[in-house]
Amino acid sequence: MAKGVIRRLLEHRGFGFIQCEDGRKVFFHRSEVLQVPFSNLQEGQVVEFAVQETPQGPKARRVRVNTITTRTTPLRPNA
Known about the structure:
CATH 2.40.50.140, 6 strands, 6-stranded mixed beta sheet, 58% strand, single chain, mainly beta
């Protein structure tokens, strides 16, 4: 499972983007969020997920919120 932080959340459209620990941005759809309602998500929450490569780019599957940790500083890719 990959880890990352919710960077952009478009609640009214039902999707968002996660920034992975390696710096990649990954799309996710509300239907892939487990354990909590999509409307309870917030930018900055730490999540775990599986990455599926699609023709449109990487997509997060089986997104699980880490209820213990919320990042307040951005992840930075390894230099």
